[in-house]
Each structure stands twice: as structure tokens, then as C-alpha cells.
Amino acid sequence: MSKIATLDIDGHKFELPFIVGSENEGAVDISKLRDISGVITIDPGYKNSGSCKSEVTFLDGELGILRYRGYSIEDLADRAHFLEVSYLVIFGELPTAEQLNQFENDIRKHTLVNEEMKNIIDGFPKTAHPMGVLSALTSALTAFNPKSVNVENEKEMYEAVCKTMGKFLVIATWTYRKSMGYPLNYYDNTKGYVENFMRLMFELPTGPYQADPIVINALDKLFILHADHEQNCSTSTVRMVGSSHAGLFASISAGVSALWGPLHGGANQAVLEMLEEIHKDGGDTEKYLMKAKDKNDPFRLMGFGHRVYKNFDPRARIIKKAADEVLTTLGVEDPILEIAKKLEVAALDDEYFKTRSLYPNVDFYSGIIYRALGIPTDMFTVMFAIGRLPGWIAQWKEMRENKEPIGRPRQVYVGYPLREFVETDKR
Ligand code: CMC
Known about the structure:
Blueprint: E1 4-9, E2 12-20, E3 26-28, H1 33-37, E4 57-60, E5 65-68, E6 71-72, H2 73-79, H3 82-91, H4 97-108, H5 117-122, H6 130-144, H7 154-180, H8 193-202, H9 213-226, H10 233-242, H11 248-260, H12 267-280, H13 285-293, H14 314-330, H15 335-348, H16 351-355, H17 362-372, H18 380-401
Antiparallel strand pairs: 1-2, 2-3, 4-5, 5-6
The structure holds carboxymethyl coenzyme *A.
């Protein structure tokens, strides 16, 4: 028998449908609440509000579970590769060998970026942050691909997916090439997607470049761990922008901007900068722990805490192990890693962090691996964006296929009541 929730407002009772997800998560459906009662709900930061029903990703913050389309993140990180996981996230099923091969080939068909895009990049100063440039370039892709995709046409949607996967990787690396003053590189269709990322970034016209397979494997795993994370800030932004029927590139450009913030994806850069600062300051982790706990100090321990994970972040566990492996294999000895470990142990044992369920999140260790792999610090959040791209596409596609209405929250107005207009000379 289906459950019903009853809301009592001053003795007036309103019955609301109660829905249950496939993992038994319950939700009170308030979509008709204002119609039947005249009131709305308020929930700043959406701490208790679901914005949609979704089949893409399941996560349980208390148990530290993360699954894409029903497959555990541990299995996917261990046994699949990034484009395979991208296909799964976007289209809902693991691809057959033939589908995967086709997908890889179809992405290759879209790896050339219009040469005129280079004029746009030239307009940016070299010092521009790569995330700002990436957001602008992604939006600019709309100018070169003006036809909006018909989501109901499977072939058109598939092509839009391949186009986005192909071009986004290239322009993401161009943001770095621009900052270095290097010539912009082209995708090499004889090589794989992640290997191409390394080439596009680091190959110079002056000599051959061979990406280290250890580095490629580690990056592939990191991209998988970032591929989707249900209704986080950037994904919700992509869905929100797309809900006005703005195109895929425009929506993803907005997602890049949302991801950039230091409370979201920008935390990976902030973590490394924080660890470097602690290192330069003599490695006194206790001092920084005290700062993070001091309510009069705006400092936060970057890479700690998560809106939904209240026990541990399963991605952080996998990354921590990978960081150890990569650093050992590459023979990198990094004092920053030692500081990170010291900070983690101290925070996990501290009452402030324990009572608030603040644990290391995905960004705490990812920067250390990126650094070991030679990725510059201000490209860390771009790495997150490359990994998150299939999730943004999948969520945009799902939102449009489900014909979700335009996102338009309400508010509780707390400003002035009606006021009499006063002429300038009387103010
Ligand atoms: N350092 C110190 N105190 C913290 C931290 C932190 N990193 N995070 C939360 N707190 C405290 C906060 O001050 C508050 O204390 P009190 O209850 O005394 O006022 C309490 O913990 C709850 O914090 P909140 O800000 O209400 O929690 P939230 O769910 O709104 O924010 C968060 C989650 C991730 C924005 C926050 O934990 C944070 O700012 N962390 C640092 C930035 C970071 O690492 N972000 C990456 C998130 S994972 C990547 C991604 O998917 O985006």
C-alpha cells in the first residue's frame, strides 16, 4: 500500500504523496503543496530537497556508497576504463565491445575544433585562470555548432554526446597551452582518449612525446571517480540551465563555472595550495587545525567535509590508495603527501571534526596525484571537469528526455512592504 504524508498547518491537514526510490529512499512529494495549501517549503542550499528523480547515480552518504547505473565505484575504478564508464553513465548500460569501439571512433570524428576558436583564446591574457577560459570556450562552441539537438532523435543525441566528449577534451587542454604560450595541439586519432589528454597538454613541436602508461592509468582512474555525483552544485546547474532548453554546450559552460568554486571542484586546487602553505610555514599541522576550528577565522580545512558523505567519501579511499601506488611507482617523494597524512590523522582524531562528521573528500588526495603526474596546480579543477563531463551530459540528457519543467524555485520575500516613491530632491 502506498504511504501518504500528512502536513498539519494550524490544524488544517494536507495529504501529500510519499514516493520511494529503488534503494528505499523516501520522499514527500510537495509538487502540489502550494495548490492545495497556499504555502511553499523553504530549504536554502537544498539540504533536504530532491530536485528530480534520476536513474544515473546512487549514493548513500551514511554508508559511503557510490554507484553509477547500479555498478559500484570500486568495481568500475578497478575494472573499467573512462570511455567505457562514460558510455555507461550517459546511455545507461555497459557497452558491448562493438559499441565501445564504435563510441571511441565516433568521438574521434569530433576532435577537430574550429580554427576560429583560436581567435577567441587569443583574446584572453596568459594569466587567465583555465577554468574561466574553459567556461567561455565551451559556451563559444555554441557559435560554431548553432543547431540545437533534438533530444528525441536518438541519432542526433548520440552525435551531440560524441561531439561534446571530443571537443571539450581538446579545448580543456588548450586553456593550459595558452597559459604557457605553447602552440595549440591537435588530437591524434591513432591514440586513446586519456593518452591524448597528456599529448595535447605536453607534446611540443620540438620533439616526440611519450606518455607514461602509469600516468595514463592513474588519470583514467581519476576521471572515472569524478564521472558523476548525482545532484551536486555543478550538475544541478547544468540541469537548471538546460531546463530552459538552453543547449548542451551552454549548459555545460555554466556547469564549469559552478565547479570552479573552492567549495566544490575548486577545492582540489585549494587543498594543494593549503598544503604548500603549511609546508612553507614549517609543517605545523596543529596550527592549521586550530585555525579551521576557530569561528573567528574564515580558514577552512580544504578537502574536508561533504554535504552528503557523513562517514567517509568512497572516492577519497580509492584515491588515497592510488596516490600511494603512483608515488611509489614513479619514485616520487613528496613532503606534501606527508603533511596531508599528518593532517588527516590529526583531524580524524579531533572532537570538532568528529562531531561534525568532517572526513577527507575526493579533493583531499587528488591534487597530490595530479602534482606527481606533472599537472600544474591551476589545471586541477579542469581535470575534475574533464572527468565530470559524462555526468553532466547524462544528467542534461535525462532531464530533457524526462521532459522536466523549467527550474524556477520560489522564495519567501522578507523585504519592504509597498512604499511610496520619493523624488530625488526629497530623499
Ligand atoms: N573545515 C572546518 N570546518 C568545517 C569544514 C572544513 N572544511 N567543513 C565544514 N565545517 C564546519 C562548518 O563550519 C560547520 O560548523 P558549525 O556547525 O559549527 O557551524 C559544520 O562543519 C557544517 O558545515 P556546513 O558548511 O554547514 O556544511 P555544508 O554541507 O554546507 O558544506 C562543504 C559542505 C563541502 C561545502 C564544506 O564541508 C566545506 O566547505 N569543505 C571544504 C571545501 C571542500 O573540500 N570542498 C570539496 C567538496 S568534495 C568535491 C565536490 O564534489 O564538490
